[in-house]
Amino acid sequence: MQSINSISNTQFENKVLSSRLRLALVFIFFLTALLVIRVYNLQIINHEYYLEEAFGNQMRTLPITPNRGKIFDRNGSILATNKLAFRLTLTPEKIKNIAKTLQQLKQSGFINDSDIKKFHKNTKRYQKFHNIPIKYNLDEVQVAKILTNNALIGVDVEHYFHRIYPNQGSSVHAIGYVSRMTKKDKALYDKKNYLGTLFVGKTGIEKQYETRLHGTSGLQQIERNVSGRVVDTQIIKPAIAGENLYLSIDLDMQKKAETLLKGKRGSIVVIDVRNGEVLTLVSTPIYNPNWFVNGISHANYNQLQISTNIPQLNRAIQGLYPPGSTVKPMVALTGLEKGIITNKSRVFCPGYYKLPNVKRKFNDWKRTGHGHVNVKNAIAQSCDVFFYDLADRMGIDKLHNGLDLFNFGRKTGIDIPGEGAGILPSKAWKKINRNEPWYRGETLIAGIGQGFITSSPLQLAVATAALANKGLLFQPTLLKNTQAPGNIIIESKKGHHIQIPIKNIQNWEDVIDGMKQAVYGPKGTARRLNKGLTYTLAGKTGTAQVFGLDAEEKYIAEKLDEKLRDHALFTGFAPIENPKIAIAIIVENAGSGSSKAAPIARQVLDVYFDKQLNNTSP
Asked: Is residue 347 over pLDDT 50?
């Protein structure tokens, strides 16, 4: 019985083993078939595709960043250019442990924690096969040290062109600066053309004409060896450099104006009255645009941020101030053109003005009064009472309409970003913006450029230029000429202009004569300017209050905080007979326009006319 069971079990086991062997053979056959099919797919069907992919691990197509166009002043002096520099880069695709590699570079003294932080911030902007910059503007010693001691795969030194501003802070508010491209910047420009671009214009001309200065990106094919080192480069499409720009700015006048305003907060704008070209656009204090090119340091950034003088504010186009008495010629012209006064109209100035049934006195700057004055005397001596009376008779809306013709309350359209519009008040303006009615006394102070009215130095220069050429109002421009790579210099299209309606040309002559008497008249507020003048000058001084005084209060600058003191202003044009340039200047909290602003304006104008005399016309 026992032997029968043993035989029976042996047969069963053989049967089971046979079944398992057949199953294993089927499985092996199935796996072999899959392998053969896969090999066939790789080697035969998709051979070309995978060959190209393998080749792509060695060959990459990358953008070539074009050389940025240079910026010159009107006489060919360089304002912004490019300098060959070097940067340390890292290619993530070639590095197994990026964190370890960065630490090794840090230990070798090539980078610091700030560089590492910036690298991680920038990685999202690049593909893994891109060379991502870690440190910019390496000097020759650093480059030599890196090339000698660095054996890290995926770490390289590349050359690039570094933006440089050779005049440091001079003209910074006109030129602007470039800095690293942000995600927000990317949305503004052609993605394909800016693929390899690291820096873009942030302010001024650099931003306004970014696409012209940038140029057209090219393409290159690079070949790497198994270690990730570049062994060959082929240019597929060459990059086209950006255009060179020639500005209307005269660097000599610009630097002179900056020197005269050094240590002060203010602005000087000079315009060619014949075409609207801006010869000088100065805002002080200035700052160094070179700080921003490769990323501003914390120390320099904090220096700008904590400064109460706000260096980055472009006071020429963004500083909005009460124009004070510099607006009086335009107010007088409005009164003459509307027939409210004539050149024979006279007003008695006892040193103050009173409205009927109103207790408050509106004081003249000269408390003893000017006596009987006509429109020319009023402009020359800056008689407040004359303009209180004129504004009251005119009413705020007529006053608004007259000043509107000179572009007050609107942007001039200058070709740099960030311009402020200022305020030209009216009854409707106050209702909309303050939800309050207009008061008669507010019209009086608007007539002397105080109260709600504000304007920029650029607006004052544009309006003064329109007075000088009797109604021709130009859109101011900074771009004078352009030059494509290898081509001749081409004159840029000028801004548009309009003619202010003139009812009686004699009215304009009377106002201009009043400005002439301000400089040459025995009681003119700018009479100290006429000594030694080699050209004729018409001008208007101004003093703008930062805060109002009560009728019986006396202004004593020494008792006030510096930033509560009056602003000093001056506007003018020269020569009178055949005007060429107009100027507007403001010195914040400096006091009297006649003693503080006017002498500065004279020195800037002297530079222009000295050049004319020496046949080096700006």
From this structure: yes
